[in-house]
Design a protein that fits this description.
six-stranded antiparallel sheet; alpha+beta; Lysozyme inhibitor LprI N-terminal domain-containing protein; Integrin_alpha_N; single chain; 8 helices
Length: 295
């Protein structure tokens, strides 16, 4: 009886002060999930592995702030998807995060040629391939090798221009600088995602571009948008966007007959938030000034 009472007191103190059954488990920003994760041997081991991988990832990049931003976004997604601690959901998210961090660490560093360093200094040389909210965008997409070679601009100059444009989301215009617009006073966080593919979308003979941009309005939701960036005699301007399905992965992107054909992997009705499994093809075209889903 006394032992049971003592154990209850210990558990109560742990819940108040964030202590845990496994000394190697640091609760970090887990919030209400810390008790579930740190009191479970398997989950706490996975969480400790994530902490170790984060340390290595930070030591191997010059932009540790991006790693921290990415981790905070992932934690928000974890809390949103797993609520108050569904064990299966937590385990799948933790395992997925470990794989993601290992891929980031193993990714070879890009070496910028000396002749291009002045141009690259305006933006992060690796950032065109990923976005801080890595949960949604770290998955590779299949793009034909010649799809981006149609542009007369060098790739680094093209990416620089796409990341320093004005994009309209939910009726408001956001001017990105180096791929970002972050305004905590407005609760607006807009980030350039990636260049998906290119082709002639309006029949004028100029190369147009299909890109993704991500919007966060201050909550836990991170919403992807698909834009067409038109080119008219060297001037770039964007269409109004189409929203993409939440938690989906882009598998491939092509332009056919002035239409965008996206192959997506979307969450099925019984899929956990981390692991969509439903393969779908969606087709978009520009109607007026707005990119619209037509199939």
């Amino acid at each position: 009886m006394r032992f049971s009472l003592f154990l209850s007191v210990v558990i109560f103190i742990q819940s108040l002060y964030g202590f845990n059954f496994h000394s190697g488990c640091k609760s970090g920003n887990l919030g209400l999930l810390s008790q579930t994760i740190c009191s479970d041997r398997e989950l706490s081991t996975l969480w400790s592995s994530i902490q170790d991988l984060l340390f290595v990832a930070k030591s191997r990049t010059s932009d540790s702030e991006k790693i921290i931003w990415n981790q905070e976004a992932w934690l928000r997604r974890l809390r949103e998807d797993c609520g108050y601690g569904g064990r299966f959901c937590l385990r799948e998210h933790l395992k997925s995060r470990i794989v993601e961090l290992r891929q980031r660490i193993d990714r070879p560093k890009r070496i910028t040629p000396a002749t291009q360093r002045m141009h690259h200094s305006a933006y992060s040389p690796t950032s065109e391939n990923h976005f801080p909210y890595q949960v949604k965008t770290h998955y590779p997409i299949r793009v034909k090798k010649d799809a981006l070679s149609q542009s007369p601009l060098p790739r680094f100059e093209l990416i620089r221009r796409l990341k320093n444009m004005e994009y309209t989301i939910e009726g408001k215009r956001y001017r990105l600088y180096n791929g970002r617009y972050h305004n905590s006073a407005e609760y607006a966080y807009v980030d350039f995602g990636r260049l998906l593919t290119s082709g002639d979308m309006d029949g004028d003979g100029d190369t147009d571009y299909v890109v993704t941009v991500y919007f966060n309005g201050g909550g836990s939701g991170i919403f992807p948008y698909l834009f067409v960036v038109f080119q008219d005699k060297g001037t770039f301007f964007s269409s109004l966007p189409a929203s993409l399905p939440d938690r989906s992965k882009i598998d491939s992107a092509t332009i056919r007959d002035s239409k965008i054909v996206l192959s997506l992997i979307e969450p099925g009705p019984n899929d956990p938030g981390c692991c969509p499994s439903l393969h779908r093809t969606r087709i978009y075209r520009v109607i007026g000034q707005e990119l619209s889903l037509i199939y």
